[in-house]
Structure formats: C-alpha cells, structure tokens
Design a protein that fits this description.
Length: about 260
C-alpha cells in the first residue's frame, strides 16, 4: 500500500491550495511536507499558472499541532541531521512568507507549536470560532525551531509573545483576534467558504500591486521608517506608470470595477 502524501497541492480557479493531509497524525510537519510545499510554491509562482493567492488549510478536526515527533526523535541525536531538519522547515516557511503571492491561512481546531509557526509565515489568517492557538514548546523543554521566537513578537508584540512562549498556554480565537494573531474569526461551519471568498476577491486585484504592497510591508519592518518610506517611493515611481494603474484610474472615473491583466 502506497502512503498518501502528507501535503496536497492543487489549483482551484485562481487560488493555489496547500492542504495538510495527515489528520490522523494531527497534520504534523515533516521533511516531506516541507519539500512538497516548496515544490508547490514553484508551481504556483510560475509564469502563466494563473494563481493570484495561496490558501493554506488542513484536513480533519485540527489544523496542525507541530513537528512529526518520530522524525524529530530519529534526527535529534545527530547534529548534522537535526540541523538539516530545522533548515528544511526554515526554508519552506521563509519561502512561503517571501512569496510574491498573498498567503491566506484557514485554521480550525488546534494550531500549536510548528502549526503556529506555519501560520506566522502567512499574510492573512482566518480562524474558526472554536480554534485554539499556542506555542507549547516550553511545556516539554523544547524551544521553537522554525521561527516562532522571532515571528511571534513581530506579529503580536514582545510581551504577549513572551507570555505565550514561556507559559505554553493556549488562547482562543477571540483572543487571537484581539492580539492581532488572526484577522478574522468565522462562525462555525463557514471557515472554508469565507477564506475561499477572500482568495477569490484577491484574484480581482492588481497582481503587481498586491506583490509590491506585500513586499513593502514585510521589508519595511527590517529597517528604519526613513528606509521604508524610500522603498515605498521607489516602488511607487515604478508602479504608478504601469498599465494596471491606468486601468484602475479609468475604472474609478467610469464608476465600474477594474479588470486587471492576469
């Protein structure tokens, strides 16, 4: 019997879908998941793919509760093997965050440890009302290995991040919304539809404009305000002369919806 891949990749309309596919193992993260994720990103980002955004979701009751412990136990005794395991995760999550495409996450059930690190690599997060979020590494004498200690403070602030990291406690979806960890909390049974509609909306936007705004918002955090403003000015000088802007202005003046080139 051939095992099914732990992550499936597909394209629905203009949305590239990454779906964690091991619900029996709480959609745990492994080297295989990371390799499949990077291969899918190659496909989604390729010229002519028609993909305008990426939706990260998971099968089953829970989104993801962290690393594949069997793989972690197998590699942790050898420094080179452990480093390779950590770097696979870092590579995939860095690639996801740096994608020119907006990345949307749809979270149900538990989103813990490595699952939280995956969500932190996304741009916009939808959560089912019953979802729960936490780091939980500290409870077991482990520390984050795929960016949690660095991305979490940048998203929710250092004091709240240190609370979650040190206490290993879980927070509910409403608290995650209040803290800025998620963008939208969905009523029960509406997560798939709501996140899918959001991705469909992104397909109507200027793809050049979305890519530029995502890049600026992320890159600006790594420098001073003055440096970020200069980056914005440089991008605006280029973007404002493009065809998409001509179409946007014409649509505004004509009181119609713009139709951007794909």
């Amino acid at each position: 019997m051939i095992d099914a891949p732990p992550l499936s990749a597909s394209i629905s309309g203009a949305t590239g879908i990454l779906e964690l596919a091991r619900p029996d193992a709480f959609n745990c993260l492994s080297t295989a998941v990371f390799e499949l994720m990077e291969a899918a990103l190659d496909r989604f980002e390729a010229s002519g793919s028609g993909v305008s955004s990426i939706l990260v979701r998971a099968q089953g009751k829970h989104f993801c509760t962290g690393a594949d412990l069997n793989e972690l136990k197998a590699v942790r005794g050898d420094a080179d093997s452990l480093r390779a395991f950590l770097q696979k995760g870092h590579g995939a999550f860095n690639r996801l965050q740096a994608s020119r495409l907006p990345v949307v996450a749809a979270v149900q059930g538990l989103c813990l440890a490595g699952g939280l690190e995956l969500v932190l690599s996304c741009d916009v997060v939808f959560a089912d009302a019953a979802a729960r979020f936490g780091d939980q590494h500290g409870k077991f004498g482990i520390i984050p290995g795929w960016g949690g200690s660095q991305r979490l403070p940048r998203v929710i602030g250092p004091r709240r991040a240190k609370d979650l990291l040190l206490s290993a406690r879980w927070i509910d979806a409403d608290t995650a919304l209040q803290w800025g960890l998620v963008n939208y909390v969905c009523e029960p049974g509406t997560l798939a539809q709501t996140s899918g509609e959001y991705c469909a909306m992104l397909a109507t936007r200027s793809q050049q404009g979305l890519a530029s705004m995502k890049r600026l918002a992320d890159a600006g955090l790594d420098g001073t305000l003055a440096e970020g403003l200069q980056m914005e000015e440089n991008d605006a000088l280029h973007t404002l002369r493009q065809q998409d802007v001509e179409e946007g202005i014409a649509a505004f003046e004509g009181r119609r919806e713009p139709v951007f080139a794909r």
